[in-house]
Amino acid sequence: MPPTLPPPSGWFALALTAELAEGALLSRRLAGKELVLFRGPEGQPVALDAHCPHLGAHMGQGGTVRDHTVVCPFHGFRFDSTGACVATGYGTRPPPSARVSCHPTAESGGWVFVWFHPEGAAPAWHPPPVSLEGYTPPRCTVATLRTHPQETTENSVDLGHFPVVHGYGAVTLHHFEVAGPYLHTRYGFVRPDGFPGLGRNLQVEISVHVWGLGYSYVDVHLPGLDLHTRQYVLPTLVDADTTELRLGMVLRRGAAVDWRLRFVPRWMFDGVVSSMAQNAYVGDVMQDRRVWENKRHVERPLLAEGDGPVGRYRAWCRQFYSAVQA
Ligand code: FES
Ligand SMILES: [Fe+2]
What we know:
By secondary structure, the chain is α+β, with helices and mostly antiparallel strands. Helices cover 16% and strands 36% of the residues. The longest helix has 21 residues, at 266-286.
């Protein structure tokens, strides 16, 4: 069942900061647009339309980056970080109107974001700076799903599905607030299966920070172990019915971390423990996959006590769709 929701405005993650290395050229899709990403002269991420205005080659398919310009693989025309054509492959003067569209970019919390607005409006807000101080290097798993960012982000406030889909117990909402494009909620639950080697029936405290429908991070604290993970949930609509969901994770030990983790050397914590935590995170999210890929979007859901703040989430989501789309 393809999603029926149109593309929302917002910032959407297209790469890890580390993936967009100096001189690299990445090929990405965002809401039906083909884009190329590279680093500009100040190291800033640059996102340009991928198709060359000369004779239409896809610059992400064989193109290169030279002196912070992208070089088209077909005739060698070069485009700078504003999208202007600055050279042909023949050493002749570029056609004055030759340029490709340039899209706003941002970088936060180890991710590269590109702004999308269905009518091309400029960004109305920016992702906040997020410190990764003390955390393990970010891990990322990309899942391609037949769903929509509003559906995957709704998962974070849909408290009713936690016992049914994930087997969590004692789900308790502590807090919910919205402020413009930002939504924050906190809740707790018990994870009966725990984690391998760390016991069962673990108490989990969750603090969800959502910036639009493409960017949320979930601060997870296991008070019994004093272990903190930050799980990034980064759904990017790539075409009308497909979302690339980037599942990112970083991990850190609290001051009172459980003795079984206290003496684990840094290299092992960054490697083995972080990898196990990422697998557990991705495993939990994949429990939702079948529902997401086969559900239909119910515009007026029949909400019941126990759902959590789904209705308030839906009201908050409306700001990301323009009147033209409605
Ligand atoms: S198509 Fe890009 S240089 Fe000709
Ligand atoms: Fe879920």
